[in-house]
Write a structure and sequence with these properties.
Elements lengths: L4 H20 L2 H17 L3 H13 L5 H13 L3 H11 L7 H13 L3 H16 L5 H17 L7 H17 L3 H14 L2 H24 L8 H25 L3 H13 L10
């Protein structure tokens, strides 16, 4: 009788291949591949192809609220804001309990100039935080920063909104401690409240802290899988925002030469409302 070993070996190899392929063809992984391709096309200025690939990514993502948010942002970045808003509205049907999604959605709404809606989401996050479902310091910072962004757009908020924002970020720092992004929020709110000297103190400290963190990361040894360059790029974008806020404050103080240097630094570091560094 012929040996069955070759047949068993072939069967085992087939099972291994099927297992590997099943991992590669998981909907989430396929969606990630389409999304990465969409971003490449977007960076190349090929907007129509980016939208097509983004829609493919969305079709592989099922009811993922994060995928809908990414696609809405893609629509926004190519100037199709109405479609972005429609997609955000549709995604609300299955994302009401996802607080991280609500945080990200609020920032996208701010970027699109929908400040009233963004502040309403910030209020909801604070309610959830008080119920123990979200970090209160984070929710308070979100509302304070959303308020500052609304003022940067001349959205017509009442002056008392700045008082509330200062209280929010003050409480946030009291809970969490001194942190660069929270100092940036407080400094930016102070700027719109007319306290530009106080704003400059906060923003100077925030820039120093974040610049030091960026240098430290740059000096870290590269480890496979750490995505160090991606993290560096993200941090450069945030530092660009801090420089831009300080540049605006220096302009308000009449220190135009210093302001121009900061604003140019911000541009070099990728300051961009469209890309989310705002």
């Amino acid at each position: 009788m012929k040996s069955r070993l070759p047949l068993l070996r072939l069967l085992l190899i087939s099972l291994v291949v099927v297992a590997i392929l099943s991992q590669f063809l998981r909907p989430s992984l396929v969606g990630q591949w389409y999304w990465a391709s969409a971003l490449e096309k977007l960076d190349a200025g090929e907007n129509d192809q980016a939208i097509e690939l983004g829609e493919q990514a969305l079709s592989w993502s099922g009811d993922s609220p994060q995928a809908h948010l990414r696609m809405a942002e893609l629509f926004y970045r190519v100037g199709r804001t109405d479609e972005a808003l429609a997609l955000l509205e549709k995604s609300d049907e299955f994302s009401s309990d996802d607080l991280t999604y609500l945080e990200m959605k609020g920032f996208l709404l701010s970027r699109m100039g929908k400040h009233e809606e963004a502040l309403a989401l910030a209020d909801k996050l604070i309610e959830q935080a008080k119920a123990g479902k979200f970090h209160l310091h984070r929710a308070l910072n979100i509302r304070a920063y959303s308020t500052a962004l609304a003022w940067s757009d001349d959205a017509g908020l009442p002056p008392e909104s700045l008082d509330r924002a200062l209280n929010d970020i003050g409480e946030s720092i009291k809970i969490y401690g001194v942190e660069a992004s929270y100092l940036d929020t407080r400094g930016y709110v102070k700027h719109f409240a007319g306290d530009n000297e106080g704003a400059l103190q906060d923003l100077n400290t925030a820039v120093e802290m974040y610049d030091a963190a960026l240098v430290k990361l740059a000096e870290e040894e590269e480890v496979w899988g750490s995505m160090k360059e991606v993290r560096l790029q993200q941090m450069r974008g945030v530092l660009g925002v801090l420089y831009h806020h300080r540049g605006e404050t220096l302009q308000a103080l009449g220190r135009d030469e210093e302001a121009e240097k900061d604003l140019k630094r911000a541009d070099r570091l990728g300051y961009s409302r469209l890309k989310g560094h705002w």
